[in-house]
């Protein structure tokens, strides 16, 4: 289903959706980044956001990253966001991978200002490595879409929180109806 959705898309419109572009100080092993527009290139940060590396230890777990070497973990009420140039009236898909870091219910709120808002319960049901792929669609109501991923929870353990990677926004195309052709049943 998601592969069919992606097949009808153009190239991604986000900057650094895989979190592989290094911050100005370079990548460090397990670092919380401060709020601001330049902590993670391309993203605006609110709250405690941790840039994690594949193989990083957290408690008794080893964190796995689905693609590349880096992802972000969102602390309590933390968010990452980005403004994307879009074509008003066109349909777009938001795709991403997400996982939880603790054995408890975690959620991720995905929103586009003036478009869609969806809270996704992260249950990691479909992948043995703990990551699931998600897709949402929206119609652009303006020339820019304000995309935001937020941890709406308040966890007792501050090391818990959803992990996010492989974020993409792509324009969807609806095929034109063929002219002069008809379906004939026999």
TrEMBL record:
<dbReference type="InterPro" id="IPR006946">
    <property type="entry name" value="DGR2-like_dom"/>
</dbReference>
<keyword id="KW-0134">Cell wall</keyword>
<dbReference type="InterPro" id="IPR052437">
    <property type="entry name" value="Pectin_Meth_Modulator"/>
</dbReference>
<dbReference type="InterPro" id="IPR008979">
    <property type="entry name" value="Galactose-bd-like_sf"/>
</dbReference>
<dbReference type="Pfam" id="PF04862">
    <property type="entry name" value="DUF642"/>
</dbReference>
<keyword id="KW-0732">Signal</keyword>
<protein>
    <submittedName>
        <fullName>Uncharacterized protein</fullName>
    </submittedName>
</protein>
<keyword id="KW-0325">Glycoprotein</keyword>
<keyword id="KW-0964">Secreted</keyword>
